[in-house]
Amino acid sequence: MAEIKTKQTDADVGEFIMSFADTEQKQKDSFALLRIMQDVTGYEPKMWGPSIIGFGKYHYKSERSSQEGDMPLVGFSPRKAAFSQIGRAHV
């Protein structure tokens, strides 16, 4: 089975935003999203993999395969074309 690449890291979120967000506006928007998501979730932002900023985490296990791991509850990445959001659906 392939190793899961999206894992929580100790990388600095602020440094990531300043180096990855390619415009001043995207940097401002990233820090605004950071504050909003932190206020709403109550979790500190953490880097997940090389380019996802996540808040909180949950453990998943696939019923169809033996794959399992941890993922952020919600998160975003300041991609070049647009922001990408992630989030766990509640069932």
Describe the structure.
With 91 residues, this protein is of the alpha+beta class. Helices cover 29% and strands 29% of the residues. It is built from two helices and six strands. The strands form two sheets. The protein has a four-stranded antiparallel β-sheet with strand order 1-2-5-6. The protein has a two-stranded antiparallel sheet with strand order 3-4. Strand 1 and strand 2 form a beta hairpin. It starts with 12 loop residues before the first helix and ends with a strand.
Count of strand segments: 6
Q: State Rg.
A: 14 Å
Strand content: 25-35%
Question: Which regions are unreliable across 5 or more consecutive residues at pLDDT < 50?
Answer: none
The first-to-last residue Cα distance is 27 Å
Descriptive terms for the model:
single chain, about 90 residues, alpha+beta, four-stranded antiparallel beta sheet, globular
Topology:
Layout lengths: L12 H8 L3 H18 L3 E4 L3 E4 L2 E4 L6 E4 L2 E5 L4 E5 L4
Antiparallel strand pairs: 1-2, 2-5, 3-4, 5-6
